[in-house]
Every structure is written in structure tokens, then in C-alpha cells.
Specification:
It comes from Nonomuraea jiangxiensis. By secondary structure, the protein is α/β, with parallel strands linked by helices. The chain contains nine helices and seven strands, in the order βααβαβαβαβαβαααβ.
Length: 266
């Protein structure tokens, strides 16, 4: 089971692994906490962003081979312009939800599916979005309630990412609100990562999954992350997005596994 905060998060962090597991015959279940209704997008009059994003989620899930998709129904907490928790969030915002109640709802699905593995985020919530941090808390607790023994934290190896962003900054002018230094404490360092999953065989599905979230490739005053990723030429895309990273906290630092079902020790 893959637990994400919003539609499109699965495409960015775990799509290759999901497609790989489905191709291997595993039952892959995708759960999102919210419909992502506060994401930036250029919508037609009368369109509801949350409904659109859920439709995109189902399309993405089908492309990846998911057997089931669920939304817990919490409100998208949004993100303040300076980062952190938005003050104008809805009453049912996921960040304000009772963590135990949300964990029990997720645990019920884990138990129903008899899931062997649940995938959440690292404690930082990746880049720090409040809903991503809440996914970590709720997912970790749900695994304990359900008795799901293997918890993987989807993340990014921040060490090469920071180096890449610093080099890119010499040739590309980032938006004013973008600070490369924030990535120095985002995601996970190389030494804490336990799983490096090669998904190059599945980058076609991963790219299709990203493309399914068309509403998130537009909107805002600067280039959207998804739009930038989809502009990467296909051969380079396979190289850049061909690895997905995970941390399993009950394994010793320095562990180097290549598949979610790899056992320790090998």
C-alpha cells in the first residue's frame, strides 16, 4: 500500500516502484489523504479542482497497474506563501485531523488488504509540506495498529539533488521564493537511505503517470515542478528519474537493498 498526501504525489515519488510491483504480480493499493483541492491550476469555469484531481489520480493509478484507489476525504491543508501551515486552511484540513482517528481509518484498509508493506514519507515530509508530515505520522501509527511490519519512507537522496540544484542555479534563474538551502535539510541524506530501487524499465509508466496529472502542470507565476520534469528529454528522463529511494528505520544505516521485498540480511 502506498499512502500519499495528494493526487500527483504518487507520480513524483513512487510511480516507478508501483508499476514494477504491479508488473511482478503484486496487488498495489494507492491511498491519498486529500483530493488536493488547493493545488494551483488553471481551471475552466465551473470545474472543481478536487474532482478533477481525483479523476487524474484514477487515470494515473490505472496506468501504474493499481488494483485499488482510496481517498480518506480530508481537506487539503495548503501551504503558506512562505512555507509551513496555511492560515486559511479548511475546517477539515488533514493537518488538523485527529491523528489517531486518521490512523485507524488507514489501518482498516491495511488490515482489509492484509498489506505486507506500507509506504509513507520521511519525518520531514520530503520538502516539508504539512500534509506530507502528517502522512508520516498517520502512516506510521496506522502500521502499528494494523500490524504491518514493513514501513518504507519514500524520499529523495538529497545529497546529489543539492549539488544538481547548485549547478543548475548557474544557468537557470529560480523563482524568488526558491531557496536551494532549504533542500539541505529536506528529504533524506545518502547514508540514511536503505533502498535504492532501479525503475528504469518502468519510466515510460512513470512519465505517463505524471502526464495524467495535467492540472498540476499549469498555474502559478513560475514553472511548475511537474511541467519542468515532463520537459526532460526521454533518454535523460530515464537516467534522472530511474531510481526511487526509501528508508526503512528498523534496518541499520548503510543498508543497501534494491527491492521493497528484499530481506535483511541478504
Amino acid at each position: 500500500m502506498f499512502f500519499h498526501a495528494h493526487p500527483d504525489d504518487e507520480a513524483l515519488l513512487t510511480a516507478g516502484t508501483m508499476a514494477m510491483l504491479a508488473a511482478e504480480g503484486h496487488r498495489v493499493v494507492l491511498v491519498v489523504a486529500t483530493a488536493g483541492e488547493r493545488g494551483l491550476a488553471e481551471m475552466e469555469p465551473g470545474e472543481a479542482l478536487g474532482e478533477t484531481r481525483l479523476k487524474e489520480l484514477y487515470k494515473s493509478a490505472a496506468l501504474l497497474g493499481c488494483a485499488r484507489v482510496e481517498c480518506l476525504g480530508y481537506g487539503d491543508s495548503g501551504l503558506s506563501p512562505k512555507g509551513g501551515i496555511a492560515e486559511d486552511r479548511p475546517d477539515n484540513a488533514f493537518i488538523d485531523a485527529d491523528s489517531e482517528e486518521a490512523a485507524k481509518a488507514l489501518a482498516a484498509i491495511l488490515q482489509e488488504e492484509q498489506a505486507d508493506v506500507v509506504v509513507i514519507y520521511d519525518p520531514a515530509g520530503g520538502y516539508g509540506h504539512p500534509d506530507h508530515v502528517q502522512v508520516h505520522r498517520v502512516g506510521k501509527r496506522a502500521a502499528k495498529i494494523a500490524g504491518t511490519k514493513v514501513v518504507l519512507e519514500a524520499t529523495v537522496n538529497r545529497d546529489p539533488l543539492v549539488r544538481l540544484l547548485r549547478v543548475a542555479g548557474r544557468f537557470y534563474k529560480f523563482p524568488p521564493e526558491f531557496d536551494v538551502r532549504t533542500f539541505e535539510s529536506a528529504y533524506s541524506s545518502n547514508e540514511t537511505i536503505t533502498h535504492r530501487v532501479n525503475v528504469r524499465k518502468y519510466t515510460r509508466q512513470k512519465r505517463a503517470s505524471m502526464s495524467a496529472h495535467a492540472s498540476q502542470a499549469s498555474g502559478g507565476d513560475s514553472d511548475r515542478t511537474l511541467a519542468v520534469m515532463l520537459k526532460v528529454p526521454r533518454p535523460l528522463y530515464r537516467l534522472v528519474f530511474g531510481t526511487e529511494w526509501y528508508v526503512r528505520r528498523d534496518l541499520p544505516p548503510g543498508t543497501r537493498l534494491t527491492h521493497p521485498f528484499d530481506r535483511w540480511p541478504n
